[in-house]
Amino acid sequence: DAGVIQSPRHEVTEMGQEVTLRCKPISGHNSLFWYRQTMMRGLELLIYFNNNVPIDDSGMPEDRFSAKMPNASFSTLKIQPSEPRDSAVYFCASSPLGRLNTEAFFGQGTRLTVV
Amino acid sequence: TQLLEQSPQFLSIQEGENLTVYCNSSSVFSSLQWYRQEPGEGPVLLVTVVTGGEVKKLKRLTFQFGDARKDSSLHITAAQPGDTGLYLCVFTGNQFYFGTGTSLTVIP
Fold this sequence. Notes:
The complex is a heterodimer.
Chain A: E1 5-7, E2 10-13, E3 19-24, E4 31-38, E5 42-50, E6 53-56, E7 65-71, E8 74-79, E9 88-95, E10 105-106, E11 110-114
Parallel strand pairs in A: 2-11
Antiparallel strand pairs in A: 1-3, 3-8, 4-5, 4-9, 5-6, 7-8, 9-10, 9-11
Chain B: E1 5-7, E2 10-14, E3 19-24, E4 32-37, E5 44-49, E6 55-58, E7 61-65, E8 71-76, E9 85-92, E10 96-98, E11 102-107
Parallel strand pairs in B: 2-11
Antiparallel strand pairs in B: 1-3, 3-8, 4-5, 4-9, 6-7, 7-8, 9-10, 9-11
């Protein structure tokens, strides 16, 4: 397996534009997580899905953020409209959560810059 | 409030030195994990500790789980520049709870 695949690796956009980040989890994993990482706040959980169903979205900053998982092999995180304070590295991770001492497998992240 | 507090937050040392980073909580855990995140990459699992008092070694890295299963430590012997990165302790419940992290820089 190629691991968790995120695209794009880098995104630069202007304030007010819509941004869509994409993630392909590892096949067979039942859980998918979206994280945001900044120097100030570290690694923050935004939302996670279990069996394609959103379980906890309490970390989503506000209504400008939305996430979907239409099937077991694809998820998107959308920001509309984007703001400079959204600049961060966004990680997607997948896991066979529920198995004993399971592991989170991370993608390489998308570095988002909103100017 | 953070479930897992790590210290120090930042650490810069010379190659060849030893170091210890800590992960503390007021909660008892069934297990704890340590991840390392290298610059430009996502975190990668290093080890899982399960039993109170357990010690696990991974080459020059030694991980210990506290007897009361509330804390853990990571000791690196003779640090090398390749050890540079962000070290995160993690508790796995219904999701992954990440600690505050220790950013380590090893200077050649």
